[in-house]
Design a protein that fits this description.
Strand order of the largest sheet of chain A: 3-2-4-5-7-6-14
Largest sheet of chain B: 8 strands, mixed
CATH topology of chain B: Rossmann fold
Oligomer: heterodimer
Number of strands of chain A: 17
CATH superfamily of chain B: Thiamin diphosphate (ThDP)-binding fold, Pyr/PP domains
Radius of gyration of chain B: 20 Å
Strand content of chain A: 15-25%
Number of domains of chain B: 1
Order of helices and strands of chain B: HHEHEHEHHEEEHEHEHHEEH
Shape of chain A: globular
Strand content of chain B: 15-25%
CATH class of chain B: Alpha Beta
Helix content of chain A: 25-40%
Helix content of chain B: 25-40%
CATH architecture of the largest domain in chain A: 3-Layer(aba) Sandwich
Strand order of the largest sheet of chain B: 2-1-3-4-8-7-10-9
Number of helices of chain A: 12
CATH architecture of chain B: 3-Layer(aba) Sandwich
Chain lengths: 410, 285
Amino acid sequence: MEITQEQKAFALNGDEAIALAIKQSDVDVVAAYPITPQTIIVEKFSEYVADGEVDTEFVCTESEHSALTACLAASATGVRTFTASASAGLALMHEILYVTAGCRAPVVMAVTNRALSAPINIHCDHSDSMVERDSSWIQIYVENSQEAYDSIIQAFRVAEHPDVLLPVMVCLDAFFLSHTLENVQVLPDETVQKFVGERSIPLVTGHEGKNVPFKLDPANPLTIGPLDLYDYYFEHKRQQEEAMQMAASTIVQVHDEYGQLSGRRYGNGLVDAYRLEDADIATVCVGSTAGTTKSVVDTLRAKGVKAGLLRLRTFRPLPIAEIRNSLETVEAVAVMDRSNSFGGNGGPIYHEIRHALFDAQARPHVVNYIYGLGGRDMPQSIIRNIYTDLQEIRETGQVNSYVQFAGVRE
Amino acid sequence: MNNKDLMLQHPLAKYLRQERMPHIWCEGCGNGILLNSFLEALDELQLDLDNIVVISGIGCIGRAAGYVNVDSFHTTHGRAIPFATGVKLANPQLKVVVISGDGDLFAIGGNHFIHAARRNVDIKVICANNFNYGMTGGQYGPTTPLEAWTTTTPYGNIEHPFNLVHLAAASGAVYAARWTTLQVRRLKASIKKALQKEGFSLIEVISPCPEIYDRYNKLGTAVEVMKWFKLVSEVHKAYDPAKAVITKNRIIIGEFVDIEKPSYGRLLREMTAQVKEDLEGENTK
């Protein structure tokens, strides 16, 4: 593959990598509120603003609810916006997440996945973003800081694509990624600027019957987000579903274009299938656990075990066909969820993987492991045990327990 | 007698959860002084600890709820006051104390503060004011003085800060006082007074933040900050809270509001009883 751009390696943690990506992406407005472990992103970015390295309006608000509202409003005027949050902060944004998507405002947000209270905990799990899966935000989960950098740059292109116009959250694991230094390959500023480009604004029919740019502009008056009852609300929601479908192909296309530029690809952009071609057993996960799991897969493969891993890069849109195709040969699947749907018999990824595989030609056994809540470590030993369980399920055809908790005192 | 029996016990040890020690606060931080003053107030009043509830929000001082050896709750960011309101209304016998920070109480939770004060909910709010968001690395907040340096105001703050005692007075609090962590005896007396008073009370405690805010603003070590407090603090009685400034050269401290007014809970209970009585009277007619 031809890499067209020379790149430099910087030692960055995940938060800093994101701040750098934002700096290079010509963002007009950043509004945010501090919350561990997201704070470094905005703090680092505020330095760029203060040093005049970017031409960005930087707004410190009094809460996350206001931070996202400010981004939504700025985005509605046609400019590019970014915010970042985590845990309780994201939960406080909940109301405005739906408003942002419903207004078709292509806000990009970094979410440093952190557990929800109570008890209070600042460490990693995916409870915060998983509960927002129905909010009509595109969700990208990254495996490492390099991917965090790359995904933020791609996110603007995806969000602002006229066929999509949906907000994007790029989710990275708290502390494991947000605070851990890694070599990150960085593209030149002008390359990123060119790749991201200007935000294009599609034309819509305004209330005066004229075609006007879809933004708040005194020269072309338009109302965004007015009362919409049983007359048209349903159609607007149907359009959001279509936009989500369009997002899938847009993510693949943008990811591919970026891959040509950088030489870096994460599967096809939707799923990252690792050693699955002829796999008998496989795990499915999102986020940084995939890195540890890949190492376990390599060890098992060296011993002749046909093990594989499917990492979902996007959870919204859910890449149903890719999930089914990637797991075609697999007879036993373990879904690893770093969050739980209490009383729902398993975690959210488990539910959706089972849903995706229901129509598979040869439906595999699908089991679930809830792991790592509140930052509990997920060492190779636990992952190895999961693959051992899968081997047993495959050999005996018996599943003793569909949903288990891995690494917990019971 | 073994060595353990010879070990000195801190006189306030019974008020703290020893297993949560050591605390997370930085050397020189004012939170310890604040908490100590609160515990001394409890000790001197000899209140039944089973009737005390401490509630905190998020931030450095938020850990206080976990350290005190009474029923306590560490809420989400900004929500200490509504939580306290619920506790007080559900069980009016309890003395409900909110110990939280300026960022928590006056930015994300600001709306709760003004409305709890307006309703005169019988809760005591002790606010550690260190002029910034210390825990997340020193961002500017609603009390950051003009021109002050924080990580998010590298050329100086251009937002006007809240005057907390003025805000409390205007919102309807029955008691509002401000001290720095230097005036520990007055601070303790203030806390004791508020604990024995009915209604919404605010005690603002200007507190050093030696590792973050004070360092960025070149205020010197914790001891030097205490010296600065000594130099610029002006104690007044019944001073106009609107004029209670906090500047480099003057920190106006004292009691600004001390009035009597029935609390929301009392009015609610009285009205409920009255309505019940009226209805019963009608039914027996």
